[in-house]
Amino acid sequence: MSLVSIAIGSAGYSIPKIINAMLSDENSTIKIIVMNLRLPRVILALIVGASLAVAGALLQSVMGNPLADPGSIGVSAGASTAAITILLVFPHLTASVPIFAFFGAGLACILIFVMAYDNGISAIRIILSGVAVNSVLGAYNSFLQMLNSDDLQNVLGFLNGSLSGRSWNQVYIALAYGSIGLFLGFCCIKTANLLLLGEEMARSLGANVTRSRILLSAISAFLAAATVTVVGMVGFVGLIVPHISRLIIGSDYKVLLPVCTLLGGLVLLVADTVGRVLIQGMEIPVGIVMAMVGGPFFLYMLKKKGKVYGG
Q1: Residue bearing the bigger pLDDT, 124 or 136
Q2: 262 occurs within a structural domain
Q3: What is the DSSP letter of 91?
Q4: Going by C-beta distance under 8 Å and a sequence separation of 6 or more, which residues neighbour residue 204?
């Protein structure tokens, strides 16, 4: 799929022609386009998709709910709010958007848990707090855009989520932070499996449920912030991929997280490729493609009878 995505574009090249160009010592047009434009885009899609899928899977363990993902509880909204504020109000600090996005996601996560805490943290209170934070931050973002309606080009690209024009610098940023987040996520496999058993069972097995929920949510926020800083808002990957993975291999996080990592990257890469070729002469941002697919999928999960969470 990666080779197909590299071959497809405004100028299409056959896979053998691309391989020959890459093996050649000559700096041909094909080699320059592949190395500077298409290959970074493919690698970034794989990293971002894997990070969002693992973030969603961990949050679903925290909530005990297959409908949870970084976008639905306000974590991604925190990162985007910080980024939009910098882009519109402090444009001279644009180079610092990744840093502010991280802080925005972290502050949103802290606010959600402060609001949710009441002699412990329950999954339902986290969800309700996340919905409230999402709503408030969404209103703030809309108000900020209304005040700066003449300068929305960069913001619209950010809100729609796009891999277009990304360079190796974004790949390095995503790889650095994504690797850390994925490593921490894989270290919490046992904790995620315990939370799936329910609060009472987890406590009886010696788990500190509140601490475990905070830890997994913090890792999810870190992964979500890492993706928002480089490609903007891309939703539904953290919702769709864990669900499909459970249908294939069950709910054991020892297997679920590796499958989510691989499938998440593949899903986002396919979505980006579809967005590039769906309408000739026009590119649809990957965030819009995921929303077009994810919205109906979300409704399907809501309507599905019986347990969605299960092996």
Answers
A1: 136
A2: yes
A3: G
A4: none
Predicted model pTM: 0.85
Asked whether residue 105 is domain-assigned, the answer is: yes
Is the residue at 309 inside a domain? no
Sequence-ordered list of residues with C-beta below 8 angstroms from that of 166, at least 6 positions apart, any chain: 40, 41, 44, 230, 231
Largest Cα span, the chain: 66
- In this prediction, residue 182 carries a pLDDT of 95
98 pLDDT higher than 80: no
> Domain residues for 13?
2-303
Q: Is the pLDDT of residue 114 over 80?
A: yes
Inside any domain, residue 89? yes
Mean pLDDT of all residues in the chain?
A: 83
Task: Provide the CATH number for the domain around residue 70.
Answer: 1.10.3470.10
Torsion, CA 200, CA 205, CA 211, CA 214, rounded to 10:
-70
CA atoms within 13 A on the CB side of 250: 6
**Spatial separation of the C-alpha atoms in residues 135 and 132, rounded to whole Å:** 5
